[in-house]
Amino acid sequence: MATEITMPQMGFDMTEGTIANWLKVEGDMVQKGEPIAEIETDKTTIQIEAFSSGVLMQILAPVGAKVPVGQAIGYIGAPGEKPPSTAPAPSTSTQKAVPTSAASPQTSAVSPSPASTAPFTNVSPVARRMAEQMGIDLAQVKGTGANGQIMREDVEAFAANLPATAVALTSGEPSSMTPAPASEPVAPSPSPASVERVIATPAAKKLADGQNVDLRLVKGSGPAGRIVLEDVANFALAMQKQPVPSGVAPVAAAPAMVGAQQPTPGGQRKPLTRIRQTIAQRMTLSKTTIPHFYITVSVEMDAALALREQINEALKPENIKVSVNDLVIRATAMALARFPNLNAMFTGDAVEQRESIHIGVAVALPGGLVTVTVRDANTKTLREIAVEMVGLATRAREGKAVAGDMGGQTFTITNLGMYGVEEFLAIINPPDAGILAIGAASPTPVVRDGKVVVRNMMQVTISGDHRVTDGAEGAQFVNEVKRILENPWGLVL
Amino acid sequence: MEMNKDELISLYRQMLLIRTFEDKSAEMYAKAKIAGFLHLYNGQEAIAVGALSALHSDDELVTHYRDHGYALARGIDSRFVMAELYGRETGTTGGRGGSMHIASVEKHFWGGYAIVGGHLPLAVGLAYANVHHNTGRIVLCVLGDGSTNIGTFHAALNWAQLWHLPVIFLVENNMWAMGTAISIHSSVIEIYKKAAAHEMYAERVDGKDVLAVHDAVCKLAERARSGEGPSLLEAVTYRYRGHSMADSDVQRSKEEINEQKQRDPLTMYLTNVLLKRNLLTDEQESQIHHEVEAEVDEAVAFADASAEPALDTLYDKIYAQPVANMQIDGSLIRPAALYTGNGTHG
Amino acid sequence: MAEITFREALKRALREELTRDPDVVIWGEDIVAYGGGGAYAVTAGLAKEFPGRVRDTPIAEEAIVGVGIGAAMGGVRPIVELMTINFALVAWDQIVNHAAKLHHMFNGQIKVPMVMRSPAGFGRTAATHSQNFDSWLASVPGLKVVEPATPYDAKGLLKAAIRDDDPVFFIEHLQLYGTRGEVPDTEYLIPLGVSERKREGRHLTVVTWGRMLVETMKAAKVLSGEGIELDVIDLRTLRPMDLSLAMQSVKRTNRAMVVEEGWRSMGIGAEVAATLQEQVFNYLDAPIARVAGLEVPMPYAKNLERATVPFSDDVVAAARAMMTNQY
């Protein structure tokens, strides 16, 4: 039976060889082990041996032919035997081995994967990714790189000639579903450099994601303006007064604005200020994601008010005045020290109790409100709290808040007593677990020892995060605030 | 060690098996079934067969990378050796080592080693271990002429002599270190003389004469076993093929190769010993040929039919003893997805 | 519990293991006669206590390691001492091509239960004698690489290394031999491949080992006075490297620094930083910092040597910069 002589592998790095010389002619007898041809590789010329004895029946590859390793170059058989009438077509076509055939690039004969089975392999990785993102059919793109490789520029140039709406932005939201409105600054030829890039640390980005903070609004304090963790934490509450530049509205707010695109006749359209923007974002987040519950207690404030009179009398020479709200701040901080579970934040898979007690206090501003922070309020005296609050509130109202004035609170108080409000419900200020809404202390008939008497009663309402705590704990907590305020010497001792 | 008729015939059969196996390996390499470096033993068969027939089957064997002949002469199944050349899971090292690293510790063959001279200190240490454990076993360390110029050669000879360890350094002098002739690479042409620098006992023998090699090794083994220490045996030989299958062999003249083939170890032994002493008939010789060819064909069929090693064994046996936290740092140890954590291998 | 030197802790580990297992032997240059036992006196007296099992060898590192490998293959448990790690270069083929590879390459048929002990570091001995090859060694699959920082760890880790079935390269920083620490009289082992938190702090994770652990602990004291609390992780084993504690730590501190004595480029610090950013990227609030040796062949002159190697003040400066966003 005829056996194939194949182009031998002579060395681990050999993929093809050229027939340099046949040492036998068709019809010659050959012995096993006898040299029959010389093969030229890119390193050297090697004699190849016959692996069986017999007659050299047929030479398939003439001198000069370049043949891949493993392909037949001839047949050895028994004397008188005929070569296979049709040479079994080797895996790569034999015509490649014949030098007279159209000289194809040298890669074609040895290419392990014919071009037809893997189209567009000649594409740079960046170009491929870009095309996938833009939904571009690479078959239509002409490559200008080496050997016709499709490069990034080719994809960009192709994209530039398409209608703008047909191309998805390389970064940002899956906007291919909603063609960008004409007013949006969509570059016809999106290049990565033209996309605004926010420089923030990974940890800052992660927190911003969790807090739904738009990093484009945050000012970085790190090197070269890099946004670090602390900046996001502060921003989560702090707000500034500059109007928000159009076109960077947070995604969450965008749908709500669609109906307001055209002002109603006679009405007036006021673009959101940055502060309203943030309030809208944060309060929506809170009210839609945090399950609130509410518990109200009535606090008899007569003793506290009397004590406050005495304190203020004593502090008069120093021009310091302790407000009712200052009493509430201190009482709340003291109560939180006994209810660490409420001085906490919900993190998705855990409740993280905070080490320190920082009381946020809502301060009304024209066109909005901010929350200032009294840090470590449980360790501060009434006098310190009073002084600090004046500074915090003044700076906030004048738009001169400094680093540390805002953000980082662990629990918040909002007080509408000065507006004569008796009782109201507040929205939790994330990431806190609760907020106290304080009404006015107003003379109210109450029953004491079986008699109706008039006392200054103040309604205190907690809004609690039901993921963190429950009604019973919330009730105990507000009763602790009540107890402290009704026995006010504890506030100064 | 006097040999009976069967043993004498067996020497021929072993040499023929090696020759046939190597020719078939060359063929399978040319057909790209075998890859990398393949160093063939054609022409040198009498040394492996002569030396191992002179030792106990549990004497320790450490060799260079031209190691197929030693594996076969040690009685390792030719199917497993061929499967290793193929890189299959049934190979002697499960497709890890390939041609240059055949081993069977079960048969006291501690491996072929592919860094020239690298295995010499290992052989000395192995000899120490046998002394330490008082096993009575000796070590045969096989090396080529090229490795007698490297530092470990002298470091190992010095140490073996200094500690009087039972090791035989068997130098296969085939006159060529890869493609460099001995006159170009060594200041001493008669290699055995190098042992004198360490006051080590040494001899020179015709490496094409299987019985001469056998007798010489018998004598040196006896020395080692009786506590007379290490020795060096130079066996002069010649290899018919290039250094490896990647060698075009243009550096050696056809005349030189043909002249060497006139003194072929197989032919000489068959003609001058077996046939001359009527130990073997032509029919029996022909029968041996058929058996050997059948065995080698069977080895190829076995290798062809064997599976490649399973991918999920890739990280096996990097460590003999797993370490806590191994799977955590994926980049250094095994990716968690591949880790089976059965504790037997790392 | 007594305070003993790092050197004494090592010697006790060797003595206990020689006593426990008759297959344990110690070989090396000048470990018997010279100066009573070793260039750094770690083996002093052991040759007398264990005749025939603690032996001087020729000055031939490729043979010291290679003969050790062969003996280990044959079931002996050799501890070979390379007088300094600089001489390991002479034995590199044996360490990398043989010790590390045989178990895997021979598909588990061969084990190499051997310890290579060697002092590393600097001490006014100039370029060829003042090196650290931590990252070179730790990059080789099949090797285990250990480098203790305290006498307690030195003893427990060396005993575990001797009992380990794999080749272990045990690096001893020569500046540590005289340092003291508490070591219990009772026997204990410290598993290889387990890092340890040597100090708890909330501001900055520092990953280090060996002599730089000692310098980092000094730095931590200074920084603590400034309100910066370091969380210090001692790797102890460089391969296989345990970064689990370091990763947990970074999740709390959001900042990480690697402190190493060796050359910065391609160092262990680069590997640690790369792995941390792969594993805990979202927790990082600053680039991972590296404090490392300067990349020059070590000069002999005192002031130049001092400038080349990091000390505690370098750690302090780097930590301050990190905590004030000045990186």
Which properties best describe this structure?
heterotrimer, A: 493 residues, alpha+beta, OB fold (Dihydrolipoamide Acetyltransferase, E2P), Dihydrolipoamide Transferase, Chloramphenicol Acetyltransferase, 7-stranded mixed sheet, 4-stranded antiparallel sheet, 11 helices, rod-shaped, C: 327 residues, alpha/beta, Rossmann fold, 2 domains, 5-stranded mixed sheet, 12 helices, 14 strands
List the helices and strands and how they pair.
The complex is a heterotrimer of chains A (493), B (346) and C (327).
Chain A: E1 3-6, E2 16-22, E3 29-30, E4 35-40, E5 45-49, E6 54-59, E7 66-68, E8 72-77, H1 107-110, H2 125-134, H3 152-160, H4 202-211, H5 229-235, H6 254-258, H7 274-289, E9 292-300, H8 302-315, H9 324-338, E10 344-346, E11 351-353, E12 359-365, E13 368-374, H10 382-397, E14 411-415, E15 434-438, E16 442-448, E17 451-465, H11 471-486
Parallel strand pairs in A: 12-14, 14-15
Antiparallel strand pairs in A: 1-8, 2-4, 2-7, 3-6, 4-5, 6-8, 9-17, 10-11, 12-13, 15-17, 16-17
Helix pairs in contact in A: 2-3, 4-5, 9-10, 9-11
Chain B: H1 5-30, H2 45-52, E1 60-63, H3 68-73, H4 78-86, E2 109-112, H5 120-132, E3 139-144, H6 151-162, E4 167-173, E5 176-177, E6 180-181, H7 182-185, E7 201-206, H8 210-225, E8 231-236, H9 254-262, H10 265-275, H11 282-305
Parallel strand pairs in B: 1-2, 1-3, 3-4, 4-8, 7-8
Antiparallel strand pairs in B: 5-6
Helix pairs in contact in B: 1-2, 1-10, 1-11, 2-8, 4-11, 5-6
Chain C: E1 2-5, H1 6-20, E2 24-28, H2 46-49, E3 54-56, H3 61-73, E4 77-81, H4 92-99, H5 102-105, E5 115-120, H6 134-138, E6 144-146, H7 151-163, E7 168-173, E8 180-183, E9 196-199, E10 204-208, H8 211-224, E11 230-234, E12 237-239, H9 244-253, E13 256-263, H10 268-280, E14 289-293, H11 302-308, H12 312-323
Parallel strand pairs in C: 2-3, 2-4, 4-5, 5-7, 6-7, 10-11, 10-13, 13-14
Antiparallel strand pairs in C: 1-8, 6-12, 9-11
Helix pairs in contact in C: 1-7, 3-4, 8-12
